């Protein structure tokens, strides 16, 4: 490095400035005024967050849209119902346990056709024709 290295001078200047700013900030953060200001700022930001949440919930109600907590509650309820249904339904049958048809060379005999009994309806008497 040469004597007139501008980047070296720049790095030293930035390092000195950062050191001074850090020491000044550390001294100021220890004071009661800064602690009180930070406390006040956090109270105001929490209040703003609360007002925003309430107004956003009101807008969702007017638009008839569910909030995140309502969607989460609905998802939880659906999951409970699915779990109960899983307990009620029979377990899936293992394909290895299902009986299969025999592998004989001869086809099994066909089932006998069902006979249908037909009964005749009794004849109805007709009365004399009137002309």
Features:
131 residues; mainly alpha; 58% helix; 0% strand
Task: Characterise the protein shown here.
The chain is mostly helical. The chain has a domain of 84 residues. 58% of the residues lie in helices and 0% in strands. The chain is built from three helices and no strands. The chain is elongated. The chain starts with 5 loop residues before the first helix and ends in a 43-residue tail after the last helix. The mean pLDDT is 82.
Q: Approximately what portion of the residues adopt beta-strand conformation?
A: under 5%
Structural class, please? mainly alpha
- Could you spell the SSE succession in H and E letters? HHH
Uncertain runs: none
Q: What general outline do the C-alpha atoms trace? A: elongated
Helix fraction, binned, reads: 55-70%
- Rg (CA only): 44 Å
Distance between the termini: 139 Å
Number of strands: 0
Mean pLDDT: 82
Question: What's the main sheet like?
Answer: none
Number of helices: 3
């Amino acid at each position: 490095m040469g004597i007139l290295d501008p980047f070296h001078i720049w790095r030293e200047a930035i390092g000195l400035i950062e050191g001074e700013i850090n020491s000044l900030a550390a001294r100021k953060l220890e004071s009661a005024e800064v602690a009180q200001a930070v406390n006040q700022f956090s109270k105001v930001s929490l209040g703003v967050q609360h007002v925003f949440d309430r107004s956003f919930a009101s807008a969702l109600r007017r638009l008839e849209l569910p909030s995140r907590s309502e969607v989460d509650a609905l998802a939880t309820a659906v999951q409970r119902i699915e779990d109960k249904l899983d307990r009620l339904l029979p377990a899936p049958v293992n394909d290895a346990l299902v009986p299969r048809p025999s592998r004989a060379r001869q086809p099994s005999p066909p089932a006998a056709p069902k006979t249908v009994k037909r009964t005749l309806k009794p004849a109805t008497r007709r009365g004399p024709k009137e002309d």
